[in-house]
Amino acid sequence: MENIVTKTGYEWCVEANIRLLKLHQWETPLGDFEESYYKEKITDKTFYERLEDCDVKPNSQPRKTEMYLEYRMYGLVPYNISPIQQAIQFGHAVVDYSRTISETPYEKIYNKWADEDKTFIILNGGTTNNKPENFGTLNKHLISLRENSVIVKEFNEPDLGDQLTAVVFLVDERVFNKELYPDFIEEKLPWSKKKPSEKQLSELDAKNKVNYEHWVEKIGGSKNAFLRDFLKSFRLA
């Protein structure tokens, strides 16, 4: 008996390396074109039938809307408290995060993570010291995250002199899924027996800048570009 393969419209687009330009053109008997595209399993025959009425871009990675991205709750905690205390401090911050974003546009994304994704990533944030003249690394990380428009929530433990003990923030898959969203790699001119001309180098530099801007747009903007670089230096707590 023939094994019939079914995938979502999005998964078929990933396989075909084509991007749907107008999601509302995706026709489905389910009524909700967005939910159908990301969740309804269909055969390749049905996929190509529906694709006939859609504007697409070939050789282009398909995109997900915010509600269908995978999310993880990242947290930074001090290195010098016990693992159980690190988890407790992280939990306090997550609870406060949920209250902070309540009745804001970010609440739906938080609820999506809480209902479906649920993953925690607890990282070693180093030292904590809330004195401005001698901030700990955890305190500096909090400042850096805020300066780069990342929505964060911190927790200060009363039993530890109100020191900062956790910083949490939601991260979407465009930051941590390096297989689907590879790092940006600059093009380089191969050298032969002589150095490339200044004109060649200038043209390549301009091309790399344009390609980098396209890459930043593909991974969700400058905030995600910052997070990809920011998270490289951390290890699990």
Q: Secondary structure elements and their pairing?
A:
Blueprint: H1 9-16, E1 18-20, H2 33-39, H3 44-51, E2 56-58, E3 71-78, H4 83-100, H5 107-117, E4 120-126, H6 137-147, E5 153-157, E6 163-172, H7 173-176, H8 198-218, H9 222-230
Parallel strand pairs: 3-4
Antiparallel strand pairs: 1-2, 3-6, 5-6
Number of strands: 6
Strand order of the largest sheet: 4-3-6-5
CATH homologous superfamily title of the domain at 70-176: Bit1
Number of helices: 9
Describe this structure in words.
With 237 residues, the protein is an alpha+beta fold. Among the domains are: 9-58, no CATH class; 70-176, 3-Layer(aba) Sandwich (Bit1). 41% of the residues lie in helices and 15% in strands. It has nine helices and six strands, in the order αβααββααβαββααα. It has helices at residues 9-16, 33-39, 44-51, 83-100, 107-117, 137-147, 173-176, 198-218, 222-230, and strands at residues 18-20, 56-58, 71-78, 120-126, 153-157, 163-172. The strands form two sheets. The chain has a four-stranded mixed sheet. A two-stranded antiparallel sheet has the order 1-2. The model has no long low-confidence stretch (mean pLDDT 94).
Descriptive tags:
237 residues, alpha+beta, Bit1, 4-stranded mixed sheet, two-stranded antiparallel ribbon, 9 helices, 41% helix, 15% strand
